[in-house]
Design a protein that fits this description.
Oligomer: single chain
Order of helices and strands: EEHEEEHEHHHHHEHEEHEHEEHHHH
Helix content: 40-55%
Number of strands: 12
């Protein structure tokens, strides 16, 4: 890894791409001070003190006027020397200032390169760096607060606590390997089993919190399943608030997947309407049903829609068993004279259900509450303890948990060397979260998703 002094000086517009009252051009690297000083026509900046100046090009032509600021490393955002030119927010002016800085020795920053340098200089870990992008992209106040908590290190501290438990357990196992002639009881087998149980429980709790954070940040993937004409498309339209899907009395109208992003009580949901589940000789309908089942396998929640007049679950029971979470919806309640027969309870007694009329809106508020409960985010909770997370984080925690489970299996068979190896892999996998153990290609993938200037 090169030192900060060996790196190029980078420049980018750090504010939005639309016109605004103020726009910021940011520089980071060894030439940041000198380039900004030349643009502002000063010999040197006083650190962290705003200086009002005209911004001039090489011929002395005034491009704009505004504030120049200098933040010497390592006490800056990137850990390097950082300078900012705070100008008027006209995109043409800001790009002209960027082009001037490039002519004076900087280069245009890659997407996320400022945050990447902050990570490489130890100013933040990988979870905190990713939270910057999450905060920028937050779609409501609750998601923004969660991203802010990740930026402040809440997620990182919890990962570090589990990592320390893992490390202590690894040390115990590695030490025991050096005394192979002793019995495991003498070497503290019970304590090892207890410690691994603590690690597993801590991972389970952290994974549940990260999953909630992911849903706050990325939203939940919700698939509508049911037999033809159960009212899935009508329900999609009701939740979307407009006629997104074609609704007819003809069974099999929906043949392909239909995606719509809606917000339900502050939670972003990607709703997927699917082809009705039934036996069919039609090749196109068969493909639609195959796609529906594929979507359901990876969904956070399946809304299983039944016609309340004759709620036969035979067409959907097999697929319902394969999904992670189910919410049963008895639709068309407006056509009933009495409460529907809850046919799902015989095979799925613990699953929640809602009785609605998608056509007339009856029961939709109860449905929204049930959805937010089912995806793990309470309807009106402030969620002050939540942090933002991503699919990468939950996947790494799941893999860590699997390796801890493998280590417990090897310990039960008194194979300490295999137990130690499984714990090492678990520890390394957990380290991917904060970036303390992370391949270069992982870093490149993460930071390339950032916007320019961050």
């Amino acid at each position: 890894m090169s030192s900060s002094a060996d790196r190029d000086t980078i420049v980018a517009v750090a504010t939005g791409s639309v016109a605004a009252g103020v726009g910021i051009v940011r520089l980071s690297g060894p030439l940041a001070h000198d380039i900004a000083a030349r643009v502002c026509g000063v010999v040197a900046f006083k650190p962290r003190v705003a200086t009002y100046r005209a911004f001039r090009d090489e011929q002395g032509t005034i491009l704009d006027d505004g504030l120049g600021l200098y933040f010497p490393g390592p006490n800056s955002f990137t850990g390097e020397d950082v300078a900012e030119l705070q100008a008027h927010g006209a995109p043409a002016v800001l790009q002209e200032l960027v082009a001037l800085c490039v002519r004076l020795g900087a280069r245009r920053a890659r997407a996320g390169e400022f945050s990447e340098r902050a990570f490489l200089e130890g100013r933040m870990d990988l979870l905190q760096a990713e939270a910057i992008a999450d905060l920028i992209n937050a779609t409501d106040a609750r998601a923004a607060r969660a991203a802010r908590r990740s930026m402040q290190g809440d997620f990182s501290r919890r990962v570090d606590e589990v990592s320390q438990l893992l490390l202590n357990t690894r040390i115990h196992v590695e030490a025991a390997i050096d005394f192979v002639d002793e019995s495991l009881e003498t070497l503290g087998l019970r304590q090892l089993e207890f410690n691994l149980g603590r690690v597993d429980a801590a991972l389970e709790e952290l994974l549940a919190a990260a999953e909630r954070g992911r849903r706050l940040n990325e939203g939940a993937h919700v698939v509508l399943l049911g037999a033809p004409n159960a009212g899935k498309s009508s329900l999609l339209n009701a939740l979307a608030g407009y006629d997104r899907a074609i609704v007819t009395d003809i069974a099999g109208t929906t043949r392909d997947l239909l995606h719509e992003v809606v917000r339900v009580d502050g939670v972003s949901l990607e709703l997927v309407d699917t082809a009705g589940l039934r036996e069919s000789a039609d090749a196109i309908e068969q493909e639609g049903i195959r796609r529906a089942r594929a979507q359901a396998m990876h969904a956070d929640l399946a809304l299983i829609v039944l016609d309340a007049r004759h709620p036969d679950i035979a067409a959907v029971a097999g697929d319902a068993r394969d999904v992670a979470k189910r919410l049963w919806i008895y639709n068309k309640s407006d056509l009933l004279d009495s409460a529907p027969l809850l046919t799902h309870r015989e095979e799925f007694p613990d699953d929640p259900f809602v009785i609605i009329s998608a056509k007339h809106g009856a029961g939709l508020s109860e449905l929204r509450e049930a959805i937010t409960r089912s995806v793990g985010v309470e309807q009106l909770a402030e969620s002050e303890g939540e942090f933002s997370a991503r699919a990468r984080h939950t996947e790494a925690l799941q893999r860590t948990q699997e390796w801890v489970g493998t280590s417990r299996m090897h310990l039960a068979h008194e194979d300490l060397e295999l137990c130690a190896e499984a714990l090492r892999i678990a520890h390394d996998t957990l380290g991917e979260l904060t970036g303390r153990i992370s391949p270069d290609e992982l870093l490149g993938h993460i930071f390339s998703s950032f916007c320019i200037g961050k």
